[in-house]
Amino acid sequence: MNEDIDRPTLFGLFLACGKLSVSSFGGGVSGLMLNEFVVSRRWISESDFIDGLAVAQALPGVNVMNLALWVGYRMLGGPGAIVAGLGAVLPAAIIIVAAGAALQEISGYPLLALILAGLGVAALGMSLNLVFRTMRRAFTHAVITLPIFAATVLAAAYHVPIVLTVAVLGPVSIALSYWKIKRGQE
């Protein structure tokens, strides 16, 4: 880590992940995580966060949980991963059980549907913010990213199975990135 990155405590990491888990609905959590960990707290660089987001999306499972584990591990090792994972799950799980009981009681009110639609739009905005930040970084490596992007779009357009697309383009992307890094170091 460089000097402009702060180091969290385990308790601080748990509280930050817990805050995110109870203040986010549906999509957009990755954008909230970026704002919390990169912008507000400066615990991790934007570049490291976006790398972690890419890893989290490539792994099986829930992206936000994968990202919380990765960020926790990146900042505080194994204990950080465990604490971030617990922070991302426990507070939200408690609220989900309580909210489920409450929603059962008020499920007949039309205002509830409007509130949930508004929350969905807010989550979309957060997700788009993250997309634009990621695109900005991707275009700094356009020689690598644009051909992979184009090949992915073509594969989707021609209904190539996703497993085959990832199995082919994943190693190609890694090889091109490795080549670019090695060329830049020489």
Account of the protein in words:
The chain has 186 residues and is mainly alpha-helical. It is built from 7 helices and no strands. Helix 1 packs antiparallel against helix 2, helix 1 crosses helix 4 and helix 6 packs antiparallel against helix 7. The chain is globular, with a radius of gyration of 19 Å.
Number of helices: 7
Order of helices and strands: HHHHHHH
Biggest beta sheet attributes = none
Structural class: mainly alpha
Global morphology? globular
Strand content: under 5%
**Distance, first to last CA:** 24 Å
Give the overall pLDDT as a whole number. 86
The residue fraction in helices comes out at over 70%
Number of strands: 0
Uncertain runs: none
Computed Rg: 19 Å
Quick rundown:
The chain has helices at 10-23, 29-40, 46-58, 63-106, 110-138, 142-157, 162-185. The protein has seven helices and no strands. Helices cover 82% and strands 0% of the residues.
Set out the fold topology.
Layout lengths: L9 H14 L5 H12 L5 H13 L4 H44 L3 H29 L3 H16 L4 H24 L1
Helix pairs in contact: 1-2, 1-4, 2-3, 2-5, 3-4, 6-7
Key phrases:
mainly alpha; globular; 82% helix
